[in-house]
Design brief:
The protein folds into 2 domains: about 1-235, Collagenase (Catalytic Domain) (3-Layer(aba) Sandwich), CATH 3.40.390.10; about 245-375, no CATH class. The protein contains 14 helices and 11 strands. The protein has helices at about 15-25, 55-60, 85-100, 145-160, 165-170, 190-195, 200-210, 215-235, 270-280, 295-305, 310-320, 325-340, 345, 375; strands at about 1-10, 30-40, 50, 75-80, 105-110, 120, 130-135, 245-250, 255, 260-265, 370. Strands 2-1-5-7-6 form a 5-stranded mixed β-sheet, sandwiched between helices. It has a 4-stranded mixed β-sheet with strand order 10-9-8-11, with helices on one face. Strands 3-4 form a two-stranded antiparallel sheet. β6 and β7 form a beta hairpin. It binds zinc ion.
Length: about 375
């Protein structure tokens, strides 16, 4: 069963990619596909522009709850609002253009608020269409936004398999949150309960079982569980965990197998720098990074398969140039990537650290490092 995820132009590409990565991380029969080049644009007449003078007006008109932290927004504030009809038309346009099979899902992820103040819904005319409002989550939930958004994708998928119509859904969703995927969260904050339980209540499970195979249900539950655990890591709740091995697979992707196989997403250049530091347990001074230029050429060449050789060399030359801050920037990006994935405390064991002018190193016990042959030699 296939779920096509599409994004509107204003939605951050990195956030979108993180959502897709989370959903694809657990293998199983539900397939999540996305087309990186396909971006959904809205025409001006599809968006109603409004100016909100103060918080009160904003909150009561388009915001999703009254629970945003005070001061989250500045006023007067301009905001566009679109209609459900427009959102689902976008899904239908995508279906037509890409000849999507009628039995497959198309979910639009957008930052545009909608006129009914919902943050996710299926289309009553074609419940295989859906939208998810992908903005502002951080005001409500203390975790990276990709978690609630990925969770909502699974929720829409399961709503479809629990209820036969939007009307049935409206009547039967849990108005009061009980920690079931079918909780109707009018309030963005309520979703945290669903995320923490990653569960389907017995009433809903009975309904789902009549419409969805055991294999699919198990896969959906596994994805929900993996989101739950990864979210705990990212929120710094798992700091007592013994350290995980770090594994670089054949495709040069970085995983932490003992932490729910979380993937650490780095750009090829960041990855090259990281792998270089992994090779040197005693660390490297920034001022002597240039001595590792040819080694970096080699590692970068092994990671980044496409690209002009001259251009690649130029990037490495910039990286090792003590006068540029390219390496420092990469090092802080790497740190951020680990912190976002596993929380600040655990991350310290994995990223490159060291004060100004001091040697920089990764303190991780190298017996925990598993490298492919092409890099470890
Ligand atoms: Zn339920």
């Amino acid at each position: 069963m296939k779920v096509h995820l599409i994004r509107s132009a204003e939605l951050d590409k990195e956030l979108f990619t993180s959502v897709v990565t989370l959903l694809q991380a657990v293998p199983g029969p539900i397939k999540f596909s996305f087309d990186a080049d396909s971006i959904i644009d809205f025409d001006q007449d599809e968006i109603e522009r409004k100016t909100f003078e103060d918080e009160e007006e904003f909150v009561t008109t388009i915001n999703y709850s009254l629970k945003a932290e005070k001061g989250s927004y500045f006023f007067p504030r301009n905001s566009g609002v679109t209609s459900w009809k427009t959102l689902f038309n976008k899904c239908n346009d995508y279906r037509r253009k890409n000849k999507v099979d009628n039995a497959e899902f198309v979910f639009l992820l957008t930052e545009l608020p909608n006129n009914k103040n919902w943050f996710a819904s299926v289309d009553e005319n074609n419940p295989l269409n859906g939208f998810i409002h992908a903005a502002d989550w951080s005001f409500y939930i203390d975790c990276p936004e990709q978690f609630p958004i990925a969770y909502e994708v699974i929720a829409l998928f399961l709503h479809y398999h629990t209820y036969s119509s939007l009307d049935e859904m409206k009547e039967n969703v849990h108005q009061k949150a009980i920690g079931c995927i079918n909780d109707f969260c009018l309030n963005k904050k309520d979703i945290i309960l669903k995320l923490r339980t990653a569960d389907i209540c017995s009433t809903c499970m009975m309904k789902i079982k009549t419409r969805l195979s055991q294999l699919m249900i198990r896969h959906a539950l596994e994805i929900m569980e993996s989101l739950r655990v990864k979210m705990l890591y990212s929120q710094n709740f798992k700091q007592e965990s013994p350290l995980s091995k770090i594994l670089i697979d054949r495709n040069k992707k970085i995983f932490l197998p003992d932490f729910e196989n979380i993937e650490i997403k780095l750009t090829p250049l960041e990855k090259a720098l990281y792998l270089l530091f992994l090779k040197y347990p005693n660390g490297i001074y920034m001022s002597s990074l240039f001595e590792h230029r040819s080694e970096l050429y080699e590692i970068y060449g092994a990671i980044s398969s496409n690209g002009d050789l001259q251009e690649m060399k130029q990037r490495i030359d910039d990286l090792v140039n003590a006068l540029s801050d390219s390496a420092s920037q990469k090092i802080s990006k790497i740190k951020k990537a680990f912190e976002n994935a596993i929380g600040e405390d655990l991350a310290k064991n994995y990223y490159i650290k060291g004060g100004n002018g001091e040697v920089k190193r990764i303190i991780l016990d190298r017996s925990l490092v598993v490298l492919p042959n092409s890099i470890s030699s």
